[in-house]
Amino acid sequence: MRKNIVAGNWKMNTTVPEGVALAHAVEAAVFAAPELKCEVIVGVPFTHLTAVKNVISKVKLAAENCADHKSGAYTGEVSAAMVASTGAEYVILGHSERRGYYNETIEMLKEKVDLALSNGLKVIFCCGESLDERKAGTHFDVIKNEIEGSLFHLNAEEFAKIVIAYEPIWAIGTGETATAEQAQEIHAFIRGLLAGKYGTQVADDTTILYGGSCKPSNAAELFAKPDIDGGLIGGASLKAEDFMGIVTAF
Question: Quick one: which of 25, 41, 134, 143 could link to 7 by a disulfide (CB 3.0–4.6 Å)?
Answer without folding.
Answer: 41
